[in-house]
Queue: 2 jobs
Job 1
Amino acid sequence: MLRAHTVEQVRTAEAALLARLPEGALMQRAAAGLAYAVLDLLGGGYGRRVLLLVGSGDNGGDALHAGAVLARRGVQVEAWLLSSSAHEGGVAALRGAGGRIGTPGPTGRLDVVVDGIVGIGGRPGLRPDAVAALAHVAGVPVVAVDTPSGVDVDTGEISGSHVTADLTVTFGTHKVCHLVDPAAQACGALQLVDIGLDLPEAPVEALQAADVAALLPRPAADAHKYTRGVVGVRSGSAAYPGAALLSVAGAACGLAGMVRYDGDPAALDLVRAAHPEVVGPGRVQAWVVGSGSDDGAEDALRAAVADGVPIVVDADALAFARLTRGRPAVLTPHAGELARLLGVERADVEARWLEHARRAAREHDAVVLLKGRHTVVARPDGRARVTTTGTPWLATAGAGDVLGGLVGALLATGLDPFDAASVGSWLHGAAATLAAQDGPIVASDVAAALPDLLATLTTR
Ligand SMILES: NC(=O)C1=CN([C@@H]2O[C@H](COP(=O)(O)OP(=O)(O)OC[C@H]3O[C@@H](n4cnc5c(N)ncnc54)[C@H](O)[C@@H]3O)[C@@H](O)[C@H]2O)[C@@H](O)CC1
Ligand SMILES: Nc1ncnc2c1ncn2[C@@H]1O[C@H](COP(=O)(O)OP(=O)(O)O)[C@@H](O)[C@H]1O
Ligand SMILES: [K+]
């Protein structure tokens, strides 16, 4: 599991460790990890040129100490001190190792810029001198120390200017901004340096392949189709029969024991032709309702709610999400649908993904899966998982229908809504990446890639 902690949690853990270690030891660990990450990126040390952008705090201290390590490896290191003060030990270490302190201005060739302006102690935004310094080095690969300076570390929000990194080297644990957009997009690749922090449960996590493999339902030796779980699909309409096909394609991934289609008769023949294993109405352990349901969404959702089983509430059914209040449910809006649900602007949702997903989960007392580049799955108590699998090729019509069906199948097997939503979203993204190896994909390709993906996970 990739875990992201808050600044307060990191500070508390750091304080406990600092009390046990000799002075400066923690910063040395961080700086050494940072320096080796930069050397990896440079492919060596001798003759390379690195510029450090240094703020007034320990983030700048990390950059300076790492600069000293680099200088001892033959890297030409220059530091620009962007505040009236800078970490004294770090400045001395850099000078002692042969690095130099310079003044912002045009530079010759640079191989890497190290962003040590601010880390977890920074307020969002950058000061004009930092913006000006960055303008001198535009186009040079940037390694951010701990966080890209300027982003809001605990929310992943961005207000004002910030650094956009190619690589972010972070210490002890991930921070929320590393996972949640839009800040996550400013991090580039992530590298975690273990500095020995002892941390509590994380408020935000990202499933990894091993977590998904462990959570995936597998049939018991004596299983039959009903013990494995039956998923029912009420989606599609005369106007949108394709939505029925795609939700059923996601539901028919093989994880549940059976798929029932109980939607518009106009779509039934198409569903049967494409999926001969799908049967008609009857008892189910979970419902998927709403994609392409058109004006039948409310009735379809009411009927599903009357069954008392967990429900995936998608697309047209989201307008009636209040009907599932207090019942096990996963709401699957994209940003526009969540905006309508909460009565805010889409741009507000896209500026504050985590806050809005959490708010909707709390207000609807349900798990909310907010779809986007980094999908956020939030529980009513605020715990959240972010999906980091996927590819921009997944932004294709009908992809959400496949996801709804897949999450429904996982609910039917007995996974709780938080696990079903986050595992489903992870699989959906990973299947899209697999399908898009050779270029563009359509939604049905994502469903078609699921068996191969699941095979690699279930044999782990
Ligand atoms: N204490 C330690 O031994 C360790 C510290 N670590 C590093 O220390 C960092 C945290 O250090 P600090 O608590 O000193 O905080 P930072 O260095 O992140 O930033 C705080 C300083 O920046 C100034 N500042 C705040 N917002 C600003 C802005 N928008 N623009 C310009 N200046 C701004 C503040 O006045 C303050 O002096 C971590 O991110 C990490 O890099 C890690 O290496 C782990 C070990
Ligand atoms: N830029 C992106 N990168 C990766 N995945 C994306 C991106 N944009 C959207 N997605 C994913 O694509 C899917 C689109 O689903 P959705 O918006 O419901 O479309 P539709 O309603 O056409 O099915 C979601 O799973 C979402 O997380
Ligand atoms: K930084």
Job 2
Amino acid sequence: MSGRTTGLTPPEDSKAPVRHPDAPAPGETLGAHYDQCFGCGHQPGGLGLTTRAGEGVSVTAEFTVRTGHQGAPGLAHGGVLAAALDETLGSLNWLQRVIAVTGRLETDFVRPVPVGAELHLEARVDAVHGRKIYCSATGRIDAPDGPVAVRAQALFIEVRVDHFIENGRTEEIDAALADPDQVRVARAFEVNP
Ligand SMILES: CCCCCCCCCCCC(=O)SCCNC(=O)CCNC(=O)[C@H](O)C(C)(C)COP(=O)(O)OP(=O)(O)OC[C@H]1O[C@@H](n2cnc3c(N)ncnc32)[C@H](O)[C@@H]1OP(=O)(O)O
């Protein structure tokens, strides 16, 4: 162990999250932040998650569990469900115009999710403490008020855009930066426009 705290409870002197004035309006679809993203991109094996801005610093998202998402026969793989939660939580950063990556993701698997089910996700930022963004998410089966299947609490850590440029593979970084659609470039790295 590194000795760092693994607590997901925001410190007492945390601040409330701030929605960026230019954040998409509630109900607006966020679209894919990066076409090659496993969560929200347009890849045959991906989740194809569709995310919409909610009120405050919150989002909703849906994805349909397909045959390629199975763990046990006929049931979604837990890692796929965790990825859906991670992606939904990650999209909260666009509403704050902050660049952040998942530091910790804790997931409760409450009930199995069958193939063919539509998972309805809801995520919000609960508090911010310096670079640390505390957030939580819930996934329900087949309807926004359906039975809870998964819950997550997460800690995202704010980073500089250099995090991706220094750590990502040059091929994909260069291609993303060369995109003439500057909003898409900004979103690929969740950069302040
Ligand atoms: C690819 C995306 C594309 C584009 C962006 C959008 C993509 C959305 C996709 C979904 C999101 C993802 O999957 S993102 C991909 C998955 N995640 C990653 O690849 C991140 C890999 N990890 C790292 O790069 C690093 O560990 C960081 C950046 C998270 C932290 O490193 P650092 O910048 O050096 O900061 P460090 O000093 O260690 O930590 C800062 C503070 O946070 C705390 N802290 C750090 N990690 C933890 C932790 N696990 N649990 C508790 N606390 C922690 C420290 O104690 C410290 O608290 P204190 O001392 O200040 O109190």
